[in-house]
Design a protein that fits this description.
Radius of gyration: 23 Å
CATH architecture of the largest domain: 2-Layer Sandwich
CATH superfamily of the largest domain: Impact, N-terminal domain
Structural class: alpha+beta
Number of domains: 2
Order of helices and strands: EEEHEEHEHEEHEEHE
Largest sheet: 5 strands, antiparallel
CATH topology of the largest domain: Ribosomal Protein S5, domain 2
Number of helices: 5
Helix content: 25-40%
Strand content: 35-45%
CATH class of the largest domain: Alpha Beta
Strand order of the largest sheet: 2-3-6-4-5
Length: 203
């Protein structure tokens, strides 16, 4: 069965890590699409304009294959990757974590930087409330009024949710269901004469 659940954070959370005078201020923010990333990082850069680096990692999508890391001038692999490592460690997605570094005058070295960015990211996640969400598919169906009982029987038996309903000679319903039951629901609906089914979105 296809997995239709994923873990993310409920709301924005913050954390901090200090090492040899440097401060690593972290913020974890729930996101759902890539277009949200740049406005978020631009805003944080303005808010923490005195910080020397703004490194981040994000993961988007229930399949956890859409991700990116950014070291923002830190030695390659010392910032973005450790942040992403914490996202993976907690099994999260639909999240971006940005860590802003205020330099304290003492170089930390490669291992010190990796530990600092990892710890700052973990701090933000530990301060967040984690939640498990269910991925659902949304469809619009239209069918003749005479098929009403057959349609309603399927929707009830398969626990399909309805959000908008227009009952007339031709009926129209906006419905949604878990991704894991998609094939079964659509297969049953397809057997009803004159029923049309239009895919809307998955979220």
């Amino acid at each position: 069965m296809e997995s239709d659940t994923y873990k993310t954070i409920k709301a924005t959370s913050e954390g901090i890590y200090k090492e040899k005078g440097s401060r690593f201020v972290s913020i974890a923010i729930p996101v759902s699409e890539q277009e949200e990333i740049k406005p978020i990082t631009d805003k944080i850069k303005k808010e923490h304009h005195e910080a020397r680096h703004h490194c981040f990692a994000y993961m988007i999508g229930s399949e956890r294959i859409n991700w990116r890391v950014n070291d923002d001038g830190e030695p390659s692999g010392t910032a973005g990757r450790p942040i992403l490592g914490q996202i993976n460690s907690f099994g999260l997605t639909n999240i971006i974590i940005v860590v802003s570094r205020y330099f304290g005058g003492t170089l930390l070295g490669v291992s010190g930087l990796i530990n600092a960015y990892r710890s700052a990211a973990a701090s933000a996640i530990n301060n967040a409330e984690l939640t498990e969400k269910t991925l659902r598919e949304y469809y619009e169906i239209t069918y003749p009024y005479i098929a009403m009982n057959d349609v309603m029987k399927i929707l009830k038996e398969e626990n399909v949710e309805q959000s908008k309903q227009l009952i007339d000679l031709e009926c129209r319903i906006l419905l949604n269901f878990r991704v894991s039951v998609k094939e079964k629901v659509l297969n049953r609906l397809s057997r009803i004469d004159a029923l049309k089914c239009k895919y809307i979105e998955t979220r």
